[in-house]
UniProtKB/TrEMBL annotation:
Provenance organism: Skermania pinensis
Entry-linked InterPro entries: CoA-transferase_III_domain, CoA-Trfase_fam_III, CoA-Trfase_III_dom3_sf, CoA-Trfase_III_dom_1_sf
Domain of life according to the entry: Bacteria
Ranges in a coiled coil: none
Record protein name field: CoA transferase
Single Gene Ontology MF annotation: ATP binding
Keywords of the record: ATP-binding, Nucleotide-binding, Transferase
Amino acid sequence: MTASAPLAGIRILEVGTMLAGPYATMMLADLGAEVTKLEPAGGDISRQVSDSYFASLNRGKRSIRIDLGTEAGDARLGDLVTQSHALLVNLKPSAIHRLGLTYDALRRWNERIVCVAITGYGLHGGDDPAFDYVIQAATGIAALTGDPAGPPTLPGYSSADNSTGLAAALGLLAQIVSGRGGQIDVSLYEVMLSQLNYHAATYLNEGTRPHRRPFGAHSYYVPAQLFPTADGYLALFVTHDGFWRAFAGEAGIDGFATMAERVSHRAEVLAVVTDALATDTATNWERRLAPLGIPVAAVRELPAALDAPGAPVVTAGERRLVGCPIHVSGYTPRYGPAPGLGEHGR
């Protein structure tokens, strides 16, 4: 028997643009929520990027054109709010307040409406531009990324937007479960500082400043980083002594039996591991080490990952996309196409 969608019957309005907000509501739509995008005459700006870009963030939603801030638009918004459980918006704080997209402004139509605001620095944090890459720079992520001998580096995808979208979806659901309406305030800045958890805690409590290490090495675990091999790079992540014993046995390395030894002799450990891994290719090391239960993977490009057996690629309308990462027992998402602008206006 197929289970009903976990969020069946939940109606969510989205005033979203580009990535963080639309990604949040797409995850909710994948789980069965009815998500309606409220778009201006020109539509979400991401429609101008590419059809695949827009579809990757908006599959399975509805679209209504609405001129917020006008008398007719505000009346339509009020009607929609009376029928909905939540509204999620990602705009500048001034625009959110000006358009009346807060709980204080909307509660007159629905006391139990949950209003989620995604902004750069908080709903009361000002209007400074706060795109993903700017937040990565401002929170120390760029300074921690890349080779120590080179410049700061940005990850090759929108980590701040995606992470904030997931946090916003969590906050929205938490407030719905509470049975109360209210305002949820989620900022890119705070989400990314939160994701620096142990780095931040070490500095706040011990005064230790984090810094970049070669090949993205972990601050606490050794060896845990990328390594060059005879062909390609290998990610090896040894977090406890059992992993080390299995790896060392296969690689022919003696000594450094405890984590404390490996941390205190980091340079020596990395040197012997690098020499050992240089004797074979990354894919061969993966084949040798993975059956031993060691966390390991050859570095691959995205096409190789998407073409691999079991990759979560789905079809939504005419587009092939990566499916929902949340798997609920007995439930299979129905992936609908991204909506045309104003397609569901009636």
